[in-house]
Amino acid sequence: MSARLLIVAACALIDADGRILIAKRPAGKAMAGLWEFPGGKVEPGETPEQTLIRELSEELGIVVREACLAPLTFASHSYPDFHLLMPLYVCRRWEGQVTTQHHTELAWVRPNKLRDYPMPPADEPLIPHLTALL
Ligand SMILES: Nc1nc2c([nH]c(=O)n2[C@@H]2O[C@H](COP(=O)(O)OP(=O)(O)OP(=O)(O)O)[C@@H](O)[C@H]2O)c(=O)[nH]1
Ligand SMILES: [Mg+2]
């Protein structure tokens, strides 16, 4: 039996000091309290880039241009009820101030400190890619 495939686009925003933005998932949602990369489900008719432009506006209140989204790697992880395919982009340039519209908390973290923040299991293999990049 094959699980439902869920495509989620995620983005690591990187600031001028090489720190990465992670966000704490709100209470009441799946995996509440874990730290994630902002993003969300790719809706029908959307490209992953369009999803990220929408989600980063909804979740963080910033404007991102497609040209500023660079693919880095992806996660492929089986959860009990679905299989997650999650492209991870990086973005170093955006307009506006990052604010919490959705998450409990935001943190700017150096890649070698990401392990101090509990993340969903799908995210763990992504960390070395960010460490290598920065
Ligand atoms: N955004 C995001 N989702 C992740 C990450 N890692 C991971 O396993 N996921 C999973 O991907 C799924 C969808 O993510 P999401 O909750 O952001 O979706 P969304 O923004 O569209 O939210 P919604 O369901 O309220 O519409 C969730 O099951 C979430 O746990 C990650 O780093 N970032
Ligand atoms: Mg989301």
Automatic annotation (TrEMBL):
One of its GO terms (molecular function) is 8-oxo-dGDP phosphatase activity. Mg(2+) binds at residues 39, 59. It comes from the Bacteria. The lineage of its organism: Bacteria, Pseudomonadati, Pseudomonadota, Alphaproteobacteria, Hyphomicrobiales. This is 8-oxo-dGTP diphosphatase. The keyword Transmembrane helix does not apply. One of its GO terms (biological process) is DNA repair. Pfam families: NUDIX_4 (PF14815). Its cofactor is Mg(2+). Gene3D superfamilies: Nucleoside Triphosphate Pyrophosphohydrolase. Its EC number is 3.6.1.55. The keyword DNA damage applies. Keywords: DNA damage, DNA repair, DNA replication, Hydrolase, Magnesium, Metal-binding, Mutator protein. It catalyses: 8-oxo-GTP + H2O = 8-oxo-GMP + diphosphate + H(+); 8-oxo-dGTP + H2O = 8-oxo-dGMP + diphosphate + H(+). Belongs to the Nudix hydrolase family. 8-oxo-dGTP binds at residues 25, 36-39. Signal peptide: none annotated.
